[in-house]
């Protein structure tokens, strides 16, 4: 395996390992994980997203790789439901198969491998990632939960539309998409960010990578896989291997290549995102299996991400 593939992976592995070690020796307790996650998601990540997208013009964004990504998502999501049946468990697995950890692992990893231009491509995807996937999953779950033969007058359809509306709103008014949209809006004005604020945003944004990766290691140290490891491993294999292979196959079939496509393939190989667990908790299904799948897919990514990078290098030729 070429050193160009291993080079960006080494600091990722070491940061996760340090996080794992400091948790094991008791320097960081399990109760601190939610607070650390709030720092990453509510402070550091929005600063990086706003600062990066504030330097971009909307007309410069390329949505073709994003469309490629969601084409593969639709195939895998629909294929999971077709193979496993129209059930809440199948819907939860379909979401886990397709929802990537685009922030805690995706941002530092893509930044190391592809630099600022790669982050712009990633953030273009991130601006729609939760909105499309969580809204689609909400629609599926609401249809599954609808009483058979519900009449239009009993209020059930209206309740479902209200639920979908809340899902769309919460996917936009969120600490990830909102600073992306705000940054793009600021970039359209052409105004520079004031000097002091720019330095603060740069300082906070530079802390996303190491802090997020340390948090991944700390979380892994306190996660127990339990009796659901077989189902969780199946989810992890589909997410970490089948998803990037499908993105690559669609790109090959359409004759697409280049760095932006490589970023999409690499992002598709990221482990299962934590939002899937929050979603399963909301609907009361598959929490244990999905929780285990997040841990297994994160650990497995240390092996599968190099393979995804090799495939991504081939697409850039």
UniProtKB/TrEMBL annotation:
<feature type="transmembrane region" description="Helical">
    <location>
        <begin position="120"/>
        <end position="146"/>
    </location>
</feature>
<keyword id="KW-1133">Transmembrane helix</keyword>
<dbReference type="InterPro" id="IPR004776">
    <property type="entry name" value="Mem_transp_PIN-like"/>
</dbReference>
<keyword id="KW-0472">Membrane</keyword>
<feature type="transmembrane region" description="Helical">
    <location>
        <begin position="6"/>
        <end position="27"/>
    </location>
</feature>
<protein>
    <recommendedName>
        <fullName>Transporter</fullName>
    </recommendedName>
</protein>
<feature type="transmembrane region" description="Helical">
    <location>
        <begin position="95"/>
        <end position="114"/>
    </location>
</feature>
<comment type="similarity">
    <text>Belongs to the auxin efflux carrier (TC 2.A.69) family.</text>
</comment>
<feature type="transmembrane region" description="Helical">
    <location>
        <begin position="36"/>
        <end position="54"/>
    </location>
</feature>
<keyword id="KW-1003">Cell membrane</keyword>
<feature type="transmembrane region" description="Helical">
    <location>
        <begin position="66"/>
        <end position="83"/>
    </location>
</feature>
<feature type="transmembrane region" description="Helical">
    <location>
        <begin position="260"/>
        <end position="280"/>
    </location>
</feature>
<dbReference type="InterPro" id="IPR038770">
    <property type="entry name" value="Na+/solute_symporter_sf"/>
</dbReference>
<feature type="transmembrane region" description="Helical">
    <location>
        <begin position="235"/>
        <end position="254"/>
    </location>
</feature>
<dbReference type="Pfam" id="PF03547">
    <property type="entry name" value="Mem_trans"/>
</dbReference>
<feature type="transmembrane region" description="Helical">
    <location>
        <begin position="200"/>
        <end position="223"/>
    </location>
</feature>
<dbReference type="GO" id="GO:0005886">
    <property type="term" value="C:plasma membrane"/>
</dbReference>
<feature type="transmembrane region" description="Helical">
    <location>
        <begin position="292"/>
        <end position="315"/>
    </location>
</feature>
<dbReference type="GO" id="GO:0055085">
    <property type="term" value="P:transmembrane transport"/>
</dbReference>
<keyword id="KW-0813">Transport</keyword>
<keyword id="KW-0812">Transmembrane</keyword>
């Amino acid at each position: 395996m070429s050193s160009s593939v291993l080079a960006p992976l080494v600091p990722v592995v070491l940061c996760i390992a340090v996080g794992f070690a400091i948790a094991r020796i008791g320097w960081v307790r399990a109760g601190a994980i939610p607070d650390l996650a709030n720092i990453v998601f509510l402070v550091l990540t929005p600063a990086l997203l706003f600062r990066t997208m504030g330097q971009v013009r909307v007309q410069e964004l390329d949505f073709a790789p994003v469309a490629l990504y969601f084409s593969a998502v639709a195939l895998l999501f629909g294929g999971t439901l077709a193979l496993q049946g129209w059930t809440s468990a199948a819907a939860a697995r379909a979401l886990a198969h397709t929802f990537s950890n685009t922030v805690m692992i995706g941002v530092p990893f893509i930044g190391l491998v592809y630099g600022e231009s790669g982050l712009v491509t990633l953030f273009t995807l991130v601006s729609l990632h939760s909105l499309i996937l969580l809204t689609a999953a909400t629609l599926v779950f609401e249809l599954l939960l609808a009483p058979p033969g519900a009449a239009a007058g009993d209020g059930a359809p209206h309740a479902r539309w209200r639920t979908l509306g809340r899902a769309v709103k919460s996917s936009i008014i969120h600490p990830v998409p909102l600073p992306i949209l705000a940054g793009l809006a600021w970039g359209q004005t052409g105004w520079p960010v004031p000097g002091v604020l720019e330095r603060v945003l740069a300082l906070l944004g530079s802390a996303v990578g190491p802090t997020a990766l340390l948090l991944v290691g700390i979380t892994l140290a306190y996660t127990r896989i339990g009796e659901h490891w077989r189902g969780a491993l199946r989810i992890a294999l589909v997410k970490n291997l089948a998803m990037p292979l499908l993105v690559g196959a669609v790109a090959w079939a359409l004759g697409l290549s280049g760095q932006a496509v490589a970023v999409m393939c690499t992002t598709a190989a990221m482990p299962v995102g934590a939002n899937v667990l929050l979603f399963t908790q909301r609907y009361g299904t598959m929490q244990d299996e999905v929780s285990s799948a997040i841990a297994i897919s994160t650990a497995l990514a240390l092996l599968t991400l190099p393979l995804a990078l090799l495939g991504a290098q081939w697409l850039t030729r």
